[in-house]
Amino acid sequence: MRVLFATIPEKSHLFCLTPLAWAARAAGHEVRVASTAEFVDVIARTGMTAVAVGSNDGISAAMSANRETQQWDSVNWSELDPPNPTYQEEFDRAQLGAYGCAMYNEPMIDDLVAFARDWRPDLVVWDPLTYAGPIAAGVAGAAHVRSLCFADVWVKKRQLFLKLAAEAPSDERARDPLGGWLTERTEQFGGTYSPESTTGQLTLDPLPDSLAIDTGVARAPVRFVPYNGPAVVPAWLRTPPERPRICLSLGASNTERYGGDYVSKSDILESLAELDAEVVAALLPSQVRELGALPANVRVVESVPLHALLPSCSVLIHHGGFGSYANALVHGVPQLTVTTPVADQIYRGAGLERQGAGLLLESASATAGQVRERTARILSDAAFQENSDRLREEALARPAPADVIPVLEKLVAERRTDPWTV
After folding, report:
1. Using CA atoms, how far apart are residues 354 and 163, in angstroms rounded to an integer?
2. CB under 8 Å to 209, separation ≥6 — which residues?
3. Residues 357-386: pLDDT tens digits?
4. 266 Cβ partners below 8 Å, 6+ apart?
5. Nearest CA-CA partner of 308 in 253, 226, 224
6. 3-class SS at 187?
7. pLDDT tens for residues 277-316?
8. Best-predicted range by mean pLDDT among 22-31, 257-266, 285-294?
9. 250 pLDDT tier (thresholds 50, 70, 90)
10. Is pLDDT of 66 > 80?
11. How far is the CA of 224 from the CAs of 4, 15, 154, 319, 379, in angstroms?
């Protein structure tokens, strides 16, 4: 069968999809991966065949000009059961979310639809913010699957919003931001909007049940398999550390999209000098250039794959991104999450804390001293490692991507339909 993967132009989202795309091709299926023109070189470096659909060359400038938005309450999707939810608060959140998704998707939709009409995929696998995916599936008559790269706060919060909207007086109720936008775009291509436009006909969930969110939608487990882009394992990493090794990784998205990190790398590294530990700061070249003098126990490295580094580490300090989080999860590494409240990052950090496998700090109020104190606590309490090992076993018990391919083949057999016509 023909399988079309569709993703917004974000590396962390693509990297979560990549092992499943490899598995589909290894099973003998024809695979294409579609995103905007600026992103096709990143796709090609995964070894997959890329398709350029639209252009979105202004997104980084727009995000870096609005760095403060990561601190807004309306971008925090982590509080799933607020004590006194209001329709207006959830509407504001839904409206901002729909605006952000449209900013990513609008440049892609028309070209992705045109490609789907021409290539006729049997299955579309879409990143959970790539709502262009189910539209492309409709015009091709393809089955479609949503593949998560975070906890499913988007569907859970949407369910809360729709519940509050149904309870609100009709004269106070505004148009559903996401549903309204998708209805208009779907109808332009001869389709009819349905809840599956936001949930997929099936959702693939890489999180173990103790950390995942059960939204009630059709869901199938899949194992997270780390992929961190092209990299070479350095020679020094083959020598086991003589002291506990701490990894500091702040990801790429804040630097590349928002113009910089939300914590002081130099202050954190200086504070960690007080610990009897080796610190490896895995950073981008631009992040390295921002550092001053380094303590003697700090090694700064560039382009080291996390999946090669983390097995030697006793704790990971990171910014809350799903790639760092999931890499540590499947390697059984305790985590200290120092994050902005954007998206699901508080939810995932708090989940690790509840499970006894990590600790959480919000970056706006976190100090270097707090980072050091919590890192020391993780290193000194064996329960953090024991609980991380337990979660690792849960994560690795999920079916590998190769084992999920028959599930997708069955879905295609059951859900393939006639293409939409205008």
Report:
1. 28
2. 394
3. 999 999 999 999 999 999 999 999 999 999
4. 290, 291, 292
5. 226
6. helix
7. 999 998 878 887 888 888 999 999 987 889 999 999 999 9
8. 22-31
9. confident
10. no
11. 20, 10, 19, 19, 26
Residue 263 has pLDDT above 80, yes or no: yes
User: What are the E-state strand segments in 289-369?
Assistant: 298-302, 315-318, 335-339, 358-362
Domains of the chain: 2-223+398-415 (3.40.50.2000), 235-396 (3.40.50.2000)
- Would you state the pLDDT for residue 283? 86
For residue 394 the two structure tokens come to 């849960």
Q: 16: which 2 tokens?
A: 């979560």
pLDDT tens profile 94-119? 999 999 999 999 999 999 999 999 99
In angstroms, rounded to a whole number, what is the distance separating the alpha carbons of residues 245 and 125? 38
DSSP label of 343: B
Rounded to whole angstroms, the Cα distance separating 250 from 23 reads 29
Which pLDDT does position 286 carry in this prediction? 81
How many other CB atoms sit within 10 Å of the CB of residue 239? 8
Q: Is residue 242 predicted with pLDDT exceeding 90?
A: yes
Burial class (CB in 10 A: 0-12, 13-18, 19+), 329: buried
The beta strand positions in 95-217, using DSSP E, are 123-126, 143-147, 202-205
Asked if 144 contacts 133 with a C-beta cutoff of 8 angstroms, the reply is yes
The string of DSSP letters for 17-82 reads HHHHHHHHHHTT-EEEEEE-GGGHHHHHTTTSPEEE-S--TTHHHHHHTTGGGGG-GGGB---SS-
Tell me, what amino acid is at 141?
A: G
Distance between CA atoms of 409 and 143, rounded to whole angstroms?
10
What's the rounded Cα separation, in Å, for the pair 51 and 49?
A: 7
